[in-house]
User: What shape does this take?
Amino acid sequence: MAETLPQWFDAKLQAATEAATEEPASVKPDDVQALRNFLDDKITAEEAAESMAKRTSTAANRSDVYESLFSLWIFITDAAIYLPSSQAKLIELLKAFQSLPDAELPGGEGADYIPLKQGELWKELPHWGNVWADTFNCT
Assistant: This one.
């Protein structure tokens, strides 16, 4: 049974608040609020993407960027699955991510083995397809 928009967001916000200190790469309360505001037509897709993309600019190393992207893609995929009436808007959001200026990828942990390329962080939506397929097939 699909959840309603408020129920889904309330559950995600509670989980994000609880995980914020325990899991640095987890979805943040600000991400939940940005997506909610976007789906409620309070902000644009571009504003939501900019807000949600901030997570990668504060990453200490390539591994943190990678984990942040995965949690962000899982969050958006969950929204697409549990809030099917929002799918068209979520595609608009993904397109907004692709139009973001590219972020400078940090070195450090993961730089020599994490498959993220400079200049492609947002343009290519790295690993979005894999996350979508894995998440969709598990539901």
